[in-house]
């Protein structure tokens, strides 16, 4: 399910749907090769444990939502874009976007140079977009662009072509970034949510490549979420064990495949077209067919589900939500 429902037992991290990281997309801006589009999706509109809708409040005001960017290939962030959201006021939230560099970017927190603030969060069909210099920003509820036969996956990979996400929504953070601010080179990307509700910053969820969380359980998942990409190779044995069980791989083959999945970083060269897994990830890339084939060791190759048709040709590119929501604070 990409990275949806990454908490314990297909629940949400820290029991809060707003902290759940779902998908990361990166592609050149259509019609303008000097800019890149990064989409960080969080907070699915429906849960599976417990079953039912999640809160209407899009983002957790106690959290920081981060895009980490490695510019020199050492798996350490050199740049971080950080988004904080206000508490609901007069029926809505606003966002502040900051950029951190160097050691500050590699660390944990909400610091950095302010790029824009008081950006309105969208809760209905209208995409409320904020511009600041060469940047454009969107945050709010949108149609979930992820597509997959989830129920078929839970039924021992017996797929029927029914897209679980065709009527689901998600909260998108969309950044239009000038490539000059990224260095015009191959990048390593990941995103995470960091929970500050306890009075200190605690990593809640992270993601880059789709569906990594299915290889982990219990304490392993908690360790993985808090680990930096430089530490991810210690999870190779955990991933390999899951691949042996899921796909009947030999230990040697399972280890080889596991090493292709770690560290969990999405590589993106803004100078090249996006096509997962070679470069970035476009909204129409069928990432799950490759994943199904990999975990089944080639026994199953497709879920017979295709890309959604409600995507937009212009910013913010993700379609309007299926349901308009009034922004009420999440229950404590």
Write a concise synopsis of the structure shown:
The chain has 332 residues and is of the alpha+beta class. Helix content is 15%, strand content 28%. Strands 5, 6, 7, 8, 12, 13 and 14 form a seven-stranded antiparallel sheet that branches. It has a five-stranded antiparallel sheet with strand order 1-2-11-10-9, with no helix packed on it. It has a two-stranded antiparallel sheet with strand order 3-4.
How does this model look, in words?
The structure is a single chain. This protein has one domain (8-295). It is 15% helix and 28% strand. It has six helices and 14 strands. The chain has helices spanning 102-106, 150-154, 218-226, 236-247, 251-261, 287-295, and strands spanning 21-28, 35-42, 46-48, 51-53, 63-70, 79-85, 94-101, 113-120, 130-132, 135-143, 169-178, 187-195, 202-207, 266-268. The strands form three sheets. Strands 5, 6, 7, 8, 12, 13 and 14 form a seven-stranded antiparallel beta sheet that branches. It is globular and about 55 Å long.
């Amino acid at each position: 399910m990409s990275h949806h429902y990454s908490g314990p037992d297909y629940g949400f991290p820290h029991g809060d749907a707003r902290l759940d990281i779902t998908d990361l997309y990166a592609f050149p801006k259509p019609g303008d090769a000097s800019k890149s589009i990064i989409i960080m999706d969080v907070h699915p509109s429906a849960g599976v444990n417990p079953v039912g809708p999640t809160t209407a409040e899009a983002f957790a005001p106690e959290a920081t939502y981060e895009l980490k960017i490695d510019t020199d290939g050492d798996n350490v962030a050199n740049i971080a874009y950080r988004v904080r959201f206000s508490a609901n006021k007069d029926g809505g939230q606003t966002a502040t976007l900051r950029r951190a560099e160097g050691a500050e970017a590699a660390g944990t927190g909400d610091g950095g140079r302010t790029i824009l603030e008081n950006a309105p969060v969208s809760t209905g069909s209208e995409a409320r977009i904020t511009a600041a210099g060469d940047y454009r920003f969107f945050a709010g509820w949108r149609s979930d662009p992820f597509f997959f036969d989830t129920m078929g996956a839970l039924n021992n990979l017996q797929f029927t072509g029914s897209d679980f996400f065709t009527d689901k929504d998600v909260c998108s953070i969309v950044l239009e970034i000038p490539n000059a601010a990224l260095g015009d080179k191959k990048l390593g990307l990941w995103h995470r949510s960091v929970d500050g509700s306890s009075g200190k910053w605690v990593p809640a969820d992270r993601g880059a490549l789709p569906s990594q969380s299915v290889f982990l359980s219990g304490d392993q998942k908690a360790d993985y979420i808090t680990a930096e990409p430089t530490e991810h190779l210690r999870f190779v044995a955990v991933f390999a064990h899951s691949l042996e069980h899921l796909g009947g791989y030999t230990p040697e083959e399972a280890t080889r495949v596991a090493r292709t999945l770690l560290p969990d970083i999405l590589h993106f060269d803004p100078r090249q077209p996006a096509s997962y897994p070679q470069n970035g990830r476009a909204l129409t890339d069928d990432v799950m067919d490759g994943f199904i084939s990999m975990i089944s060791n080639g026994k199953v190759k497709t879920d017979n589900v295709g890309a959604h048709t409600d995507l937009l040709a212009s910013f913010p590119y993700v379609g309007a939500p299926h349901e308009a929501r009034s922004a009420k604070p999440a229950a404590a």
